[in-house]
Amino acid sequence: MREIIVAGCGPAGMLAAIAAAREGAKVTILEAKEKPGRKLLMTGNGRCNLTNLDPKLPRSYYGTDPETVRKLASGIFEQFSVSDTLAFFEELGLLTMDKNGYVYPYTGQASSVLELLLQELRRLKVKLKFSEKILSATWRDGWWDVNTASWTYRCDYLILACGSRAISSTGSDGSGYTLAKQIGHSIVPVLPALTALTVKGNSFAACFGVRCHAKISLCVMAGNGKENASWETLAQDTGELQWTDNGISGIVVFQVSRFASRALYNGNKVRVILDFLPEIPSVELRSVLGKLTERYSEETAGQAFSGLLPAKLMSAVLEQMRMKSSMKAGNITEKQLSSLAYVIKNLVLPIHGTRDFEQCQVCTGGVALEEVEAETLNSKICPGLSMAGEILDIDGPCGGYNLQWAWSSGYVAGTHAARKSADPSKENEIRFRESTE
Ligand SMILES: Cc1cc2nc3c(=O)[nH]c(=O)nc-3n(C[C@H](O)[C@H](O)[C@H](O)COP(=O)(O)OP(=O)(O)OC[C@H]3O[C@@H](n4cnc5c(N)ncnc54)[C@H](O)[C@@H]3O)c2cc1C
Known about the structure:
The chain has about 425 residues and is of the alpha+beta class. The chain contains 12 helices and 19 strands. A 6-stranded antiparallel beta barrel has the order 12-15-14-13-16-17.
């Protein structure tokens, strides 16, 4: 029987270990932290949004090259789909609940998901070693020496499922990228994603804590500094936005943040355009504002428009236009009303940055997808290696997509690793690139 080591006891690592053990391999998981699944327990605010029933799910992932991502994700989800995932968890004994396509454990507790995965690992006699952070791994042309601070483990096959750099206290501290790089893989620069954005200037500081409905458009200056430079909209989303002390947050912001991260990293200017009343066309809004100022002509602007936006936000929007919410509604000019209607639907905020790795849910970037086989997730660089989960250069939106990637990629990597390591004829089919290269 061939021996497989899985680096990391997160969702991808656990699924890889279960799949490999089900194929008959002898599997050990080496986990850096003293306990498994630290990040899994945080998911969905502790409730674990474990997948999404979106029929477009396999086409919803991002990475450096959209075509490579699309091909790879489709291939992986064909082998272990959302239905396979639900069947897998059902077999383990997990009841799930569908909330508008967002799937949660019926218990509402991420710990139920973790507990059942651990039970399955124990049933399959997978060895779990905690507080065993892998510091280096050396391929000896047929087997691995995997080094932790306390031991050198030997195995035939290694699966890296070390996660990203998002929230290092969970154990995913970026050391997986270092290992992959030592082995010879290239790493697409890793940046925070699914995170809040910070805004240049402080004109909306008074809105701290306010929540509002908005459509957000993330725009990037294409051809920075050049004569024909123009703003290009890279992503849009609609939902609840939260104002922070230095910018904007909330799921709607998280969904576009990966584009901001990458564009800022590339030195591009970034801005967002907020439409606070996306369901109301501009012309209609202009007419509503006119009617309100007539009806409440003796009241303040803040009072007249109090049914449109949260008070603090309306006041900040008016201030943007050098108007005061205390001004008499009847004194607002036609021109000001037209401008107000425009700004409510097109507020531009220049983006300064994103929150850091300790305040993001996932990372964009990671091990270059071109360096793994699309069907198997086996490394094209080293014959005894495969990778799964967030360590790869693929990230999904909020809503269960990232865990689904971890489940699917983990299961596929584990299955193929076990099959490949059981077939010695395939051992050296891929030329090993020396890590010193
Ligand atoms: C607050 C928060 C909420 C989230 N909510 C959701 C949600 O509801 N739905 C969703 O789909 N996604 C959610 N995500 C994203 C999701 O949790 C991750 O995409 C997913 O956990 C990635 O799985 P993974 O196994 O690849 O990595 P991880 O879960 O990060 O696991 C990697 C494991 O590897 C270990 N490790 C790292 N380096 C080493 C090493 N050198 N040696 C040994 N072990 C190592 C780590 O300790 C860790 O246990 C959320 C993320 C956060 C931070």
